[in-house]
Amino acid sequence: MLFIITGLSGAGKSTALHALEDLGFFCTDNLPVTMLAHWAENMMRNTDNAAVGIDIRSTENPELLSQALGSIRQGLPWRIIFIDAEDAVLQRRFSTLKRRHPYAPDIDLGQAIVAERRALEPLHEQADIMLNSSRLTPYQLADSVESFWHKQKMNLVGAQPVTCSLVSFSYQKGLPPGADMVMDMRFLPNPHYEPDLAPLTGKDEAVQAFFKPIAEVKMAEDKIKDWLAFIWPHLIQERKRYFTLAFGCSGGRHRSVYMTERIAAWMVAQKMSEPLIRHRELGDIQ
Predict the structure, then answer these.
(1) From 3.40.640.10, 3.40.50.300, 3.40.50.720, 3.90.79.10, which CATH number describes the 2-157 domain?
(2) How confident is the chain (286 residues) per 10-residue block, as mean pLDDT?
(3) To bridge 136 with a disulfide, which of 34, 64, 140, 280 should be the other Cys (CB 3.0-4.6 Å)?
């Protein structure tokens, strides 16, 4: 995808461009408008994602810039991000930095800002997204640009799946490192005290038959499923790439293993994920 970063001088175009560069984009700044079409064709051949900073200084004729952007968007996956800010904020930024306004350095600062805003109106109308940086820190502006990119990427290829790991463990041997959430299964009846079941695990049919008629086991399983169904779209929306859910019990062989297997099968059936299953105390990775 190709991004054009444009907008008012001092609004944060460089910050936006650097944010895309950090995301792996090939970035070019202050490209003359006469080179834009050739640059775009070259980028499409040689890289997946590229961004270019364009402002009113890229051409002596603002109308030519608008026409050039309109023509190169035909058939190419361009997105225009327009960075704006309030006039008073722009004046304060230029005064603080003691810089002349690049668009009209020989006139009053306030007049230069108004003149540039008027010249950029055609680009403003073409923008796919307008970000106002007046109340944003540079970090917040970069986050907004990153969020816009991820939304565009999801539109192109669909939502990226969350890589899920389900882990069973024994509290006696400590919590598994890296777990995003831990569920304590020690409140459930323990098959360990059944002589025939003690040497078995939660993967064995006899242990599963033990749990099946117990109401609180079913209630716990249903509540975990409800919770996962609620948070899963939010994890995707927040671009969470890895999620580890751990189930613990005393020995890490029966209750935690059983619940891990049950939740894993449900996630597959719901087409939420095909989780990596790890039964830590059994030395078992699926």
Answers:
(1) 3.40.50.300
(2) 89 93 90 82 84 75 68 71 93 84 82 89 84 90 85 60 89 90 96 94 96 96 95 79 92 96 94 90 72
(3) 140
pTM: 0.54
Contacts of 244 (CB under 8 A, 6+ apart): 164, 165, 166, 167, 176, 178, 179, 180, 181
Q: Which backbone phi and psi does 80 adopt, to 5 degrees?
A: -105, 125
Residue whose C-alpha is closest to residue 4's, from 63, 68, 47, 87: 68
Q: Would you put residue 281 in left (φ > 0), alpha (ψ -120 to 50) or beta?
A: alpha
Q: Would you say 50 and 38 are in contact if contact means Cβ atoms under 8 Å apart?
A: no
Distance CA 207, CA 257 (A): 10
